[in-house]
Amino acid sequence: MENQDPKSELFAPGLSPEPRALPELCRVLTDDSPLPTVAVEGADHIVRYANPSFCLLAEKTIDNLIGRPFAEAVPEGAMNGCIPLLDRVRDTGKAENLAEQEHSHSGPQPVYWSYSVWTIRDEEKRQVGVTFQVSDASEAVQYRQEATEMNEKLLLAGIRQHELKEVAEGLNVRLQRSMRETHHRVKNNLQVVVALAEMQLEGDGATLPSSALIRIASHVRTLADLHELLTQRVVSHPEDDALPTQTMLERVIFLLQPAFGDRHIQYEIAAMMLPMNQSAALSLLVSELVSNALKHGEGDITVTLERHVNEACLTVCDHGNGFPPGFDAQKSANTGLDLIISMARHDLRGDVKFTGRPQGGACVEVTFPVAP
Known about the structure:
The chain is an alpha+beta fold. Helices cover 44% and strands 21% of the residues. β9 and β10 (311-317) form a beta hairpin. It starts with 20 loop residues before the first helix and ends with a strand.
């Protein structure tokens, strides 16, 4: 591939640009994402944004994509349903998925892409474009084809009927479960990112403040790191759908520590395994709480996670002035507090308390149920 600058100008010459808040939001959300992402607009689905992961997947430079119709910039096969899919999402505003579509490719092997498509709306809820993520499904298709060929060879070799049935059923169950779980995880994490973006777009200004973009970028990096951990876990423990809390939270804290300068994050994390949905919520919660302590508190920050039979308790404390007298989280809620309360009560199914420390400083305590 040619050298390219993925953060170059997002609009082609001669095209009317959207307000810069939208492309900046797309850039911050997905530039560092390992998931290939594209944003298009108009009846011809003109490409307005493509992140580096998509450029790598499509083997195109950013200049070969921006300002061109998607079907022209990235030619699709004659039977591919991608363009009708983009038409439907643009017309209805409803998100859709499309799996394993054959894609035109110059290589010797066929290429298959899967799509997850949804609309982008501005602060006034008007549709300003369509964005979608692309994943390379070629290996899954090839795996299924190879499995079929293997089964045929086994049958021809005289393998008994019931053994062949068990092998085929096992392969199909694992493949279907993997696809279902992957779509579910990506959907849930996309909903977190979309919720963060929508909360920021509800403000009066047309352009997002840098602090809001930094917060969203931090959460996207946390989600990407979680997916990397989960991928490593699946490779080493194929039947397990849980993550170790120590490994997970230590990595989150490691990512946050450089922003603290001379202040340190002290932590004590109990060893336990949590399902993916709780792992994602807990990681984002720690990221938000520690970031708030950096912004509003003073001194070192302490993060502890303890387990008491069927309940876990997360505590994040600082050494600043603490919460003001009569502090009411509901009445004082802002974007950060709304996110903390939402993740604690809805994602973790727990409870959250905002208290002061006797020796000074603020303390946030989140308790939530865990499986025995």
